[in-house]
Known about the structure:
This is Abasic site processing protein. This protein is mainly β. The protein has helices at 11-17, 98-103, 178-181, 196-200, 207-213; strands spanning 5-7, 32-35, 40-47, 59-67, 85-87, 105-110, 112-120, 127-136, 142-152, 165-175, 186-188, 190-191, 222-226.
Amino acid sequence: MCGRYASTRSPQDLAQLFEVTEWHPEETLAPSWNVAPTDDVWAVLERAPRGADEDAPAQRRLRPLRWGLVPSWAKDVKIGARMINARVETVHEKPAFRRAFVKRRCLLPADGFYEWEQVKDANSGKVRKQPYFIHPEDGQVLALAGLYEFWRDPAVKDGDDPAAWLLTCTIITTEATDAAGRIHPRMPLALTPEHYDAWLDPHHRSTDDLRALLTTPADGQLDARPVSPAVNSVGNNGPQLLDEVPAP
Length: 248
């Protein structure tokens, strides 16, 4: 699974990296070294302009979304806390994700992500969870494959009110490889740049072709380092969370 990650690049940098054509400067998010479920996160997605026909040319946008997908049919937003991840093996079939898989795909930029390994203390014999920060070897941004969804808040009567709509997302996960595989059996699936266009294109709706894009995560070029247990608390944040600590 993926339950925490780091995302510290500025929206200006992300817009350039992902060739975004629409970003509203008033939409801002602080850098985070400890992104947690239900936080707002940056997402790159493509949609036709508002009011245009569904088949109109799409614009690539950078938008903040809430992490934890709330299906359009959900009665309330609480379900989102359980929908932070979607398994690549079944994402095209599950009722919560299958419509978004066909029409609403996104990329979630990340510096890296955290996974935990159970280790036994040599002195006490107690088992504890040791966090690791897993990141690209070359320091480049990870583009995590995701889905997004719109949820209509029935408490807001005016459908044209921006508050009437909640935009949420989920991260697709796969079997772990490389450094991540030594720590945890699952990991987020990151796409390589040559697949960005096909993944984001809302007019690309072949399930088989889309699933073919979800192959080796991050092209297999990942490194991992043990970090402080301080990351275990969502209240902790800052670049010190990425500092390497002695291996257990």
